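Quick illustration, no need to memorize.
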Amino acid sequence: MMDFEKVLGIIIREFDEKEVHYGLIGGFALGIFGLHRATIDLDFLIDKNDIEKVEKIMKAIGYKCIYKSEDVSQYISDIKILGEIDFLHAFREKAKKMLERVKEKDIFEGRFKIKILIPEDIIGLKLQAISNNPGREAKEYLDIENLMAHFGKELDWSIIEEYFYLFGKDKKFKELKNVLKLNKDVRKWLIENIDGIGLKESCHFLRNIGFKGLPIIDVHIQNFLKKIGKYDGKKLNKNKYLELEKKFLELSKELKIPAEELDIAIWLYESKEKEFYG
């Protein structure tokens, strides 16, 4: 199994020294954003002018090229902890723009800084993946929905809309935006039209039927927020509940853990259970 910390430590150092224009993409990039997905390799976007530099670096640190085309190159090592690394080649203007927009992020508790594509551009690459292979549609759209739900108003929606139109998926773009807006609209409708449904119960119901990004401020969340100084323990009326919701979502983004997963993690912590059965 790949030793991500060891491999990235070497790759980042070499790329920085040789001035390789790169951006991390793929499953590991999603993990850095807090959207955890199992991955066994690393994926990068690199400038086409740096392909030869990258090839020399990869061979020097113990990799061999197993496939190379105008669009991609794949490297693998016989040393298991080095694993497999795939590169997309940026030669079109839009792909080069992605590399101009990369952001540096701390990884492994600040031991390294890595350049990573912004969420909008990762969405663009996922749409390209769907266009190249429609069989990946379900998986890629799930990642796209999670990125949209996780970052919400922080996203530059004009960039995302341009990608959807580029790949002829303008209807899908409108559908996904409506789903995100629907979270709040449906919740409001439930509260106003169904007796006995309040802020917490509406979120519980919606999350159970597949809606994302909705926190449930249950007792374990309240106790946890008290422990970390984000809840003064005052009576939980509507305004206080919405205040705690906001603080919980801020914590979710700060920790880079989706609200649903953070909820479970806190439940496990507070209940001292080792496994979630819900």
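Strands lie at 22-25, 42-47, 64-68, 72-76, 84-90, 103-107, 112-116.
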